[in-house]
Amino acid sequence: MLHENKCKWCSIVVAAALGIIATQLPIADSNKLLPQMMDYKEWTVLEITLENTEQKNLDILQLENQDIRPMGSPSTPYVSRIAVSPKKLKEVKKELNDHRLSFKILTTDLSRELLPTVAASREELAHGSSTYDRYMTFKEMENHIDALSTHLPNKVKHKVKGKTLEGHDIHLVTVSDYTIDEDKSVIFVEGGIHAREWISPAAAMNLIDHLVESPALTKHIEWHIMPVVNPDGYVYSKSWDRLWRKNRSGTWFFFCTGVDLNRNFGFHWAGDGASTNPCKQNYAGESQFSEKESKAVRDAVLEVKDRIEAYVTFHSYGQYIMYPWGHTVKTQHENHESLDKVGQAMAKAILTAEGKRYKVGPAGKVLYVASGASDDWVANVTGAPYIYTIELRDDGSYGFILPETKIQAGVNDAWVAMQVIAKEVMDQSNLRTTIPEDDPADLPAEPKKRRRRGCKGKIHNGKKRKRCRRTKNKDYVINH
Ligand SMILES: [Zn+2]
């Protein structure tokens, strides 16, 4: 099938101006559209219909070079998109036909779709403040983190967990009520691992902003948030190439740059759904944890491994709430039922609050099989009961290029979902006696009484996991 789609893509998407593909990267990013940005002029976006999930990993859909950009999968099953330069279009169409894959053309000039957001407001942010009216630069996010930790030392702490090749800091922000001295449950959140998914770091930053005003959610929970795991990629995406996905590492093949950090984790590394070809968008790297960014996440997780009750990684797009396993569809996670139940609760809460439908299920089944991803690794190494990858807005109309006017609604989805998880963690730990139905920030700061739950030894991946939390001022129970 080949026909013009005159609809959504014609009213869409992003940034970029005149230009050539840049070969060097400035350390500082910019709010302004830079003349060197890749413009995607006359690039065609093809939407390809697949017959099975294996086809999603066909070379033609995963190769990423100066003529092809994989554009992800919308929330329609068995569909994949690629952007193709005018130079390669004929060849790509032929290859799709050779594979008997049907496709339609969404746009014949991607640059037209990118332009509308260029006109968005570029007002300077007051130093240290945040905004969700436009996508913040990495520097603005750093300034905001710095301001919060300086002004709210009893609530927000900040550490640098690593430095990237280009010298950017990989930040870890922890939010909790630090006036309460106890060994708290940890909810770990990671954002910005894929450069072009700008709504992801925005959601993580927005979460931090909410948490500093939510005493009920920080009294007995310590939130560990890495808002921009891939700062080199984010800066590159904002400054040079809007559709960049990976980090900016050099590879053994000079012409292809970047490792897919979400294929670089040490669990089923380089298995199904990951590639050893550096020219593919899902290149797993030279070895597991070969990258500074994935190492930083690994180290930050391992430091609190026994306290992590929930782990969430924000991505886009497609509107999915996914849980392990992602590396296979053959094995069901042992917590499948509770993962699904809480996932469905998150989806329901988002639908009620924001009117958007999210699909819930195991990552390998709902989207596609991917090995070496952070969620599977965390599930395996921590045995934490709640592990989710949330693919935020949208459902495919705008794809990665979510307009600035939709940021606030997109980050709200994430905030609604995180409140559901936080409640679940508190319920499981009996850390509260009342279940708030409204904004948890409205909860009384002091729960009436902290009950001790019946502690059950729970086995995750053959390891028994402590399900009772130790507090310094209370006796405690150890499970075996
Ligand atoms: Zn992603």
Descriptive labels:
single chain, 480 residues, alpha/beta, Alpha-Beta Plaits, Aminopeptidase, eight-stranded mixed β-sheet, four-stranded antiparallel β-sheet, 12 helices, 14 strands, 26% helix, globular, disordered N terminus, disordered C terminus, binds zinc ion
The total tally of domains equals: 2
In whole angstroms, how far apart are the ends?
Answer: 59 Å
Poorly predicted runs are 1-33, 432-464, 466-480
Kindly report the CATH topology of the largest domain. Answer: Aminopeptidase
Please report the number of helical segments: 12
| Strands in their spatial order, largest beta sheet | 5-6-8-7-9-12-10-11
Which homologous superfamily in CATH is the superfamily of the largest domain? Zn peptidases
Describe the biggest sheet?
8 strands, mixed
Roughly what fraction of the amino acids lie in strands? 15-25%
Name the CATH class of the largest domain.
Alpha Beta
- Annotated CATH architecture of the largest domain: 3-Layer(aba) Sandwich
Say how many strands there are. Answer: 14
